[in-house]
Structures are given as structure tokens and as C-alpha cells.
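Support request from a user on the community tier.

User writes: "When I paste my C-alpha cells into the form, the page sometimes reloads and wipes my input. The last time it worked, I copied everything first. Here is what I submitted, just in case something in the input itself triggers the reload:"
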């Protein structure tokens, strides 16, 4: 039986089902045993030959020159895809962090291991805000841009497109500084999947510090779809969370405001969410009812405050995730089909589907390369087998020319990706230039790039 639920607690619980952010798990193991790495959800793990923690760029250069075999770097360990694991050398960027420079044009430079939340807070202290942020803020900057991490807003770009300069250490130890004047090389590195080298410094565009007002409420699912379709251009940020089995939705909008801040209250929403997920796992026949209860306990609510505090949510309930981005104008039709597929196959999933918009950009491999996108994120509680859900909905994404999020689970290979990305082969050529021996390629990257290069 469910204990008494407050409206605020259930709202926070349901909103927290759409992302995750915790400290990484970089090194685990008992004394005398080799250290191991695992990601946040626990679906990816490895015991590499070396697990290294350089504290400065010079030390990183020496380590790269002394290492052999495949090299991969990790930050917040939030990716669900096997983009990090290697049996050879894993490198943590955690100690290469902090705001190092800013100029009069609002460009802020950070160590690449800086967590997004820390970078946004430091920007605020300097009187600046990032143009847009995701609702997960404990990824490293390097990892977030490498995978095309994004927030929502049809006119707002992903994090990769907010980069103004980068510093990259190639696997041979050579350092390269890149900016927009470097053209395609820069655009490849801005969303490079960690395949060109190890990023050590990220410079981001910023804006004068601003505040946001967030409005959250519930609607029947069909009404929410109609509302978002009619209003995607009206709001600075708009998204919604669809519950296919309960046919309900939570809608969230954000707009600029000059109003006074409202205190950001703490609650036990993550404990509540975990309890509901456990109940759904053990009594799947209750899942549709639990989803319908959303409209009974979630009230119309507003809050406002510094932008980085409104964007971010605290997430602790673990899950695995698949996300595809389809052309923006096709997004709602694709979402409808995904919801129908879940209902038709009676798939037990309590977590809602998150739906967001992002502007087109000039990067070679972000999901928004040369087209604005609607991103549809499907989640499954980490104790449940995610394969029935993901296997059921992925063909729907394929029919809509969906591009997979590089940090989320998907099944595509090089031949399929080449048809989705007009600059795919341009990226591969630039990648080979940076890393001709293929040392940055683990099995996952070999699969998605075609397996033509071998590490030495």
C-alpha cells in the first residue's frame, strides 16, 4: 500500500524520473584487487589495465605518451551506452576542473572535468548564465559536450553548440587549441564522442545572469500533445512527460522573469519515486493506475529563481535510458506511435517519456546537426529488464529518421548512421587525422564508425 502522498512530493518524484545525476563511481574494488569502473546505472562496467587520475594537463600528456592500447576518458559516468569502457587505459578528468578564465565577451573557460552544476554556479557568481542547460547537472563538461547533451527550447542549442573554444590532447600527447575559425575541425571536436583525443579545457558562450519562472501542471495525454504542438514557439523552454499507460502527462514551461526568488524546497521525492517503481515492478497490473494517479496528486505550481537552479533537479533513482531525436515537426507523431506501441504490447514501465525540442546546429555529429530536433527519451527502472521496452520502441524511432543520443542505448551501426548524418564521413576523416592509430576507439566506437581502424 502507498503511504499518504503530498502533491509536491509526487510532483518532484515524477519529474525526477527523466534524468539522473550523482557522483561518479570511478574506482571500486577491495585492497589488493585492480580498481574497476562502472557507470551510474550499473549497466556498464570494466576493470581496465590502468585507471589514471591526472591532476593537470602536463601530467595527462605524460600519461598518454607512456600508455599503450586503447585510451578512453570519463567524467560523470552518466552515459548508458558503452562509450567509456576499455580493457586498456581509462582516464578520469575529475581533477582538471574549475573556472580558469573569462573575457569581456562573456566567454567562460573551465577545466574539462568541471561538473556542469559547478560551472553554472561559478558562472552565476561571475554575473553570467549559460544560454540553456539540461535538467541533469553533474556530468562533466567534456562528457556533456562529447555526447550532445541538451535541455529544451526550439530556439536554444545543445551544449555542444554553446562551445566557443576547446583544448584537446591527442593520444600522441600533442595539444591542439580549437575555435570557430578552425571550421569543421572545431565542429567535429565540439561533439566528438571522446574519439579525437582528451579534452582538457572547454570555453562556453554565456549571457548576462538571468532568472527563470517555471510552471508545471498536468493534462490528459492527448491534451498535452495538442498544447505542446500549439505552443512550442511561444515559450522559451517547453517540455512534457508522457505516461502512456495512464494516458496522463506533466507539462513544464520556463520563461524569463524579474520576480523575486522563491525558496527551493527540499523533499523526499526520490524515496517516494523509488517506492512507486518497486511497487510497479512487483505488481505490474497496478502500473496504469499508478500513472493515472499523477493527475490526482500533482497541482498547478510555479517557482522562480536563478536559471541554473531552476534548470537542475536532484536525481537519485536509477534507470536505463534510450533517447532518439527526430525532425522537430515529426516529433509529436512519433511520440504518439511510441505510446501506442507501449500500450499495444502492454509493457510494464512506470517512468514517463520525456519530450523536448532543441535548435539546429553546425556540429558534425550532434543529434541536431543541420536540423532542429524533437528528442524522445524512454526510461526503465534499473532493476527491470530494459530490453523489451527498448526493442519495442526503437523501430518507431527508425521510421522517423531518429538519431540516437550518443550517451544512451541504441542498436545502430555505421551504415545506418551514415544515412542519418550528412557529415558522417567528414567526421570520420577528421577523426583519423587526430588519431591515425585508432587509440581512442573502444568496441562501441568501432561499431558505430565502421570498424575500419585498429588500435596499436
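"...and here is what came back when it finally went through:"
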Amino acid at each position: 500500500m502507498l503511504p499518504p502522498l503530498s502533491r509536491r512530493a509526487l510532483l518532484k518524484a515524477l519529474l525526477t524520473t527523466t534524468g539522473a545525476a550523482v557522483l561518479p563511481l570511478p574506482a571500486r574494488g577491495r585492497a589488493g584487487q585492480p580498481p574497476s569502473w562502472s557507470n551510474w546505472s550499473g549497466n556498464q562496467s570494466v576493470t581496465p589495465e590502468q585507471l589514471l587520475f591526472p591532476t593537470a594537463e602536463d601530467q595527462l600528456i605524460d600519461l598518454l605518451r607512456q600508455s599503450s592500447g586503447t585510451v578512453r576518458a570519463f567524467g560523470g559516468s552518466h552515459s548508458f551506452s558503452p562509450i567509456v569502457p576499455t580493457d586498456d587505459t581509462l582516464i578520469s578528468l575529475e581533477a582538471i576542473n574549475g573556472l580558469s578564465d573569462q573575457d569581456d565577451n562573456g566567454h567562460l573557460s573551465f577545466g574539462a572535468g568541471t561538473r556542469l552544476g559547478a560551472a553554472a554556479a561559478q558562472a552565476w557568481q561571475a554575473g553570467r548564465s549559460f544560454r540553456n542547460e539540461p535538467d541533469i547537472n553533474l556530468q562533466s563538461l567534456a562528457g556533456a559536450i562529447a555526447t550532445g547533451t541538451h535541455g529544451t527550447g526550439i530556439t536554444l542549442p545543445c551544449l555542444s553548440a554553446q562551445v566557443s573554444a576547446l583544448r584537446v590532447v591527442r593520444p600522441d600527447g600533442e595539444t591542439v587549441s580549437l575555435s570557430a575559425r578552425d571550421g569543421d575541425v572545431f565542429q567535429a571536436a565540439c561533439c566528438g564522442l571522446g574519439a579525437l583525443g582528451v579534452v582538457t579545457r572547454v570555453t562556453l558562450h554565456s549571457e548576462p545572469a538571468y532568472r527563470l519562472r517555471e510552471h508545471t501542471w498536468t493534462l490528459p495525454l492527448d491534451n498535452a500533445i495538442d498544447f505542446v504542438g500549439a505552443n512550442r514557439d511561444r515559450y522559451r523552454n517547453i517540455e512534457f512527460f508522457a505516461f502512456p499507460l495512464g494516458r496522463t502527462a506533466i507539462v513544464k514551461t520556463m520563461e524569463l522573469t524579474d520576480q523575486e526568488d522563491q525558496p527551493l524546497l527540499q523533499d523526499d521525492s526520490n524515496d517516494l519515486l523509488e517506492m512507486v517503481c518497486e511497487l510497479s515492478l512487483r505488481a505490474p497490473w497496478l502500473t496504469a493506475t499508478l500513472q493515472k494517479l499523477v493527475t490526482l496528486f500533482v497541482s498547478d505550481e510555479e517557482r522562480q529563481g536563478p536559471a541554473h537552479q531552476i534548470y537542475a533537479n536532484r536525481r537519485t533513482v536509477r534507470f536505463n535510458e534510450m533517447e532518439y531525436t527526430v525532425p522537430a515537426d515529426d516529433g509529436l507523431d512519433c511520440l504518439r506511435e511510441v505510446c501506442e506501441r507501449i500500450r499495444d504490447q502492454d509493457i510494464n514501465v512506470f517512468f514517463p517519456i520525456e519530450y523536448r525540442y532543441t535548435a539546429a546546429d553546425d556540429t558534425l555529429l550532434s543529434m541536431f546537426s543541420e536540423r532542429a530536433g524533437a528528442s524522445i527519451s524512454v526510461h526503465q527502472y534499473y532493476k527491470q529488464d530494459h530490453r523489451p521496452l527498448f526493442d519495442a520502441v526503437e523501430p518507431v524511432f527508425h521510421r522517423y529518421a531518429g538519431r540516437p543520443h550518443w550517451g544512451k542505448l541504441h542498436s545502430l551501426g555505421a551504415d545506418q548512421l551514415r544515412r542519418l548524418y550528412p557529415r558522417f564521413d567528414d567526421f570520420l576523416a577528421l577523426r583519423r587525422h587526430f588519431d591515425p592509430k585508432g587509440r581512442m576507439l573502444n568496441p562501441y566506437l568501432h561499431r558505430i564508425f565502421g570498424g575500419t581502424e585498429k588500435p596499436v
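Agent notes: The reload is a front-end session timeout and is unrelated to the input. The longest helix spans residues 269-282. The chain is about 30% helix and 25% strand. Escalated to web team.
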